[in-house]
Specification:
globular, 285 residues
Length: 285
């Protein structure tokens, strides 16, 4: 009886209707969005600028309230031609990227100490969580008392703003390493340094790049506010002075510069991430 049933299985399979056999399976590409062509991420910002320009030309936005983007671009070109914009831009970029670099380095080191050692987690994690709950701008009065109103105060506050997302995301990625990888490293007899270099750091890279994108945005956000505090250089200083004189075109130039720097920095991080993590097959790759 068993032999008969086994022998009849191919017959049952062959008796399957052709309409069922020929039914195509859903392709994975139908389930995920197609990858954007280069430059298409700018579609949203360009559309917003177009609506803004149209509203200005139709008289819905008064120039003394908010100048048109085309007027701001002309003003920006004139400021660039006479050297005003480039000097203040370099001052802002130096503050932002110095604070960013310090925050990234210290954040990664603290995340490694806290994520891979029990003593480090006991000593470091609680302090960073407390800082996470305190807005960076709330530290401005103390920072002015301790460091004055010079460059050290601005860089240090950008550093503290950047450190938190770098630490949180990198630490979470380290604590999320699969124990199977740890057991394999122990089986292979890897030393502590080899484990960090060959297992921990590669596993933490996706979380680190997410943190880096957040940190880049935060460094510019913090800089906008800090450059309004008794500075003589920087894009924020230009915007603050223009506010006193009602020059909305210069204020819009500053906003556009900050936006362009944020988009460009994020694009650079995305590019580095795609190169470093090119081995991964993900929804966005």
């Amino acid at each position: 009886m068993a032999q008969t049933l086994v022998g009849e299985l191919p017959l049952a399979s062959s008796a399957t209707p052709r309409s069922v056999q020929a039914q195509p399976r859903p392709r994975p590409s139908n389930l995920v969005p197609a990858r954007l062509p280069p430059g298409w991420r700018l579609l949203g910002p360009l559309l917003l600028l177009a609506i803004w320009e149209l509203a200005s030309r139709l008289g819905l936005l008064a120039p003394e309230t908010l100048t048109a983007p085309s007027t701001a671009l002309v003003t920006g070109y004139e400021m660039l031609a006479d050297g005003t914009l480039s000097a203040h831009f370099l001052a802002s970029a130096a503050r932002a990227y110095m604070g960013l670099a310090l925050g990234v380095i210290v954040g990664v080191v603290l995340a490694l100490l806290s994520g891979l050692t029990r003593t480090g987690e006991a000593l470091i994690d609680g302090i960073v969580q407390v800082k996470r709950a305190i807005p960076t701008l709330a530290l401005i009065p103390l920072a002015i008392i301790w460091l004055g109103i010079g460059e050290a105060m601005k860089v240090s506050l950008i550093f503290t703003a950047v450190l938190v997302p770098i630490y949180i995301n990198t630490h979470a990625a380290l604590r999320g390493i699969d124990m199977g990888h740890v057991e394999l490293a122990m089986t292979l007899g890897l030393t502590r340094g080899e484990f960090i270099r060959k297992v921990a750091l590669p596993a933490a890279l996706p979380g680190f790049f997410v943190a880096l994108r957040l940190a880049v945005a935060l460094c510019w956000t913090a800089l906008v506010v800090l450059e309004l505090i008794n500075t003589q250089t920087g894009i924020g200083y230009l915007m603050n002075r223009a506010r006193d004189w009602g020059q909305t075109d210069i204020i819009v130039v500053g906003i556009i510069v900050y936006a362009a720097l944020g988009l460009a920095s994020d694009a650079v991080v995305r590019l580095i991430e795609s190169r470093v993590l090119s081995y991964r097959k993900t929804l966005g790759s």
